[in-house]
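User: Can you recover a sequence for this backbone? Please restate the input before giving your answer.

Assistant: Of course. Working from this structure:
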């Protein structure tokens, strides 16, 4: 244990050299130091003031399952913004744990916790911190340099999957969360929260729950609020809406205004309606070998001629998209987007 604490403190010292001491002010060496969970920490029983939540469309992260929580500073609220995002008070913490059951068909059994990422809103902006769980599943330690861990599980089709899971380093957090040269949260948007969640005291729409807890300022009437479909649920939205939901959550954090992929001219956020900006018959700006000798991002009726499918199906670091956060191909995601392109006219 002394070695673990020393390692975490050394990591914090290294961060202080890189960022002028800022992370030293806000990060703690061990996840338990924050007091987010009560009892057996691996069970993720939230402490008072720690609220679980979920998003309707899930970012694919090599089939890892996730649990999410939000912590607001005492007597502070979220501020609704007209674009469907929130203004978060300084002191807000977003908690996300990545884990694998031994068998994805039995998601509550034989769970291996991999990492818990904290996104903390400080006076100097958002900082992301990765905490890696030990083998005993009793503690998670700050690892700013990231980590690689072997993981094995049985997937939904009953096949065995084994690979080296990668925990991002401190700087890689910015790869997905950067917009207009500042870090921002991705998941907690109105349209991604506007669905039911099974709380300990019963099922309830998350936005209604947050409103009942007096967590939000200025939220409009519920009937007017947008909803992003669960792309895995064929009864939630149209086929096109579900395909767009997958693309939005997996690609739009980079391919949207103000994000690193803006220079490509490809805008994949779900609000985008212009076909060319979405990639329909749009040639790449500078895809290099990432184009796979294909001429357009999306070719209606022809998924195999579409750059998007080529990059989604690749695991080559110089080709694949998304380029961060995965080593495996999301088979069902590819099938969904492939069928959407087939149906295009």
């Amino acid at each position: 244990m002394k070695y673990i604490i020393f390692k975490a403190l050394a990591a914090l010292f290294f961060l202080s050299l890189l960022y002028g001491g800022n992370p030293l002010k806000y990060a703690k060496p061990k996840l338990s130091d924050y007091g987010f969970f009560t009892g057996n920490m691996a069970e993720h029983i939230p402490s008072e003031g720690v609220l679980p939540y979920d998003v309707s469309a899930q970012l694919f992260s090599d089939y890892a399952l996730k649990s999410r929580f939000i912590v607001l500073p005492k007597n502070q609220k979220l501020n609704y913004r007209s674009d469907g995002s929130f203004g978060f008070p300084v002191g807000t913490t977003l908690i996300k744990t990545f884990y694998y059951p031994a068998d994805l068909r039995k998601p509550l059994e034989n769970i291996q916790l991999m990492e818990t990422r904290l996104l903390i809103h400080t006076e100097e902006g958002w900082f992301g911190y990765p905490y890696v769980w030990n083998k005993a599943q009793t503690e998670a330690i700050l690892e700013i340099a990231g980590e690689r861990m072997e993981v094995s599980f049985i997937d939904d089709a009953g096949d065995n999957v084994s690979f080296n899971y990668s925990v991002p380093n401190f700087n890689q957090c910015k790869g997905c969360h950067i917009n207009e040269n500042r870090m921002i949260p991705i998941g907690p948007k109105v349209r991604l929260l506007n669905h039911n969640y099974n709380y300990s005291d019963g099922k309830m729409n998350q936005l209604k729950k947050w409103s009942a807890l007096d967590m939000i300022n200025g939220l409009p009437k519920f009937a007017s609020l947008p909803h992003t479909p669960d792309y895995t649920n064929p009864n939630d939205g149209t086929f096109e809406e579900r395909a767009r939901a997958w693309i939005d959550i997996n690609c739009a954090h980079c391919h949207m205004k103000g994000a690193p992929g803006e220079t490509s001219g490809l805008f994949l956020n779900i609000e985008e309606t212009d076909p060319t900006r979405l990639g329909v018959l749009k040639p790449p700006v500078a895809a290099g070998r990432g184009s796979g000798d294909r001429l357009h991002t999306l070719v209606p009726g022809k998924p195999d001629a579409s750059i998007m499918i080529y990059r989604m199906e690749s695991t080559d670091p110089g080709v694949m998209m998304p380029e961060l956060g995965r080593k495996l191909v999301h088979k069902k995601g590819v099938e969904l987007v492939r069928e959407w392109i087939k149906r295009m006219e």
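That completes the design. The chain is about 20% helix and 25% strand.
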